[in-house]
Design a protein that fits this description.
Blueprint lengths: L1 E3 L9 E3 L6 H12 L23 H4 L17 E9 L1 H5 L2 H16 L5 E6 L8 E7 L2 H11 L8 E3 L4 E5 L2 H7 L2
Antiparallel strand pairs: 1-2, 1-7, 3-5, 3-6, 3-7, 4-5
């Protein structure tokens, strides 16, 4: 999927959200882009590598749908909000039941915003962050309200980093390239 960030982020004009079950396919696509006539004009100021896996926190709440979380199914919403996420070391020192209780609160808050679809992917050992989270919606105000409420949740105190945040508008790549001249 391609997204425009023109006028929304100072150092990024567009974002390609690439989903694959093989790292080599991502490399092949990157190589093909670099080899185009426009390739020399592109830079990659950010790249977040992550993968899906079963959540230890959602299993308890939604065991029958847990396998769906292992696959990214793009909802084709108008807006995508994406950012890397890192928890503090103290988070991992807490007993699992304490973390589960905080995540239960976190999940309950998220469920209050059914028009905002969450994709959580894991980066441990693959990249510089622990998670990459992507939210799809047609209503940016719902995402804003969701984030505001999540920042008041108990688990929030264990967030080390959740930036940079990318606010993206879904557009065909041809339209984005036209915007860029």
């Amino acid at each position: 999927m391609s997204y425009s960030l023109v006028g929304l982020k100072a150092d990024v004009d567009f974002l390609l959200w690439r989903v694959s079950d093989r790292l080599e396919l991502i490399q092949e696509m990157s190589s093909a882009i670099i080899q185009t006539k426009l390739g020399g004009y592109f830079s990659t100021p950010y790249s977040f590598l992550s993968m899906t896996k079963r959540s230890t926190y959602v299993d308890k709440l939604d065991p029958e749908h847990q396998d769906r979380r292992r696959f990214i199914t793009v909802a084709n919403s108008k807006y995508l909000f994406l950012y890397p996420f890192v928890k503090t070391r103290e988070w991992y020192q807490l007993p699992h039941d304490e973390r589960q209780a905080m995540m239960d609160e976190h999940i309950a808050i998220g469920n209050k915003y059914p028009l905002v679809r969450l994709h959580t992917t894991y980066s441990f050992g693959l990249d510089d962050q622990e998670f990459v989270v992507a939210f799809e919606t047609d209503k940016p105000q719902d995402f804003l309200d969701l984030v505001m409420e999540l920042r008041e949740a108990k688990a929030s105190r264990y967030t080390l980093r959740d930036t940079p945040i990318f606010t993206c508008v879904a557009k065909p790549l041809k339209e984005i390239l036209k915007e860029l001249g």
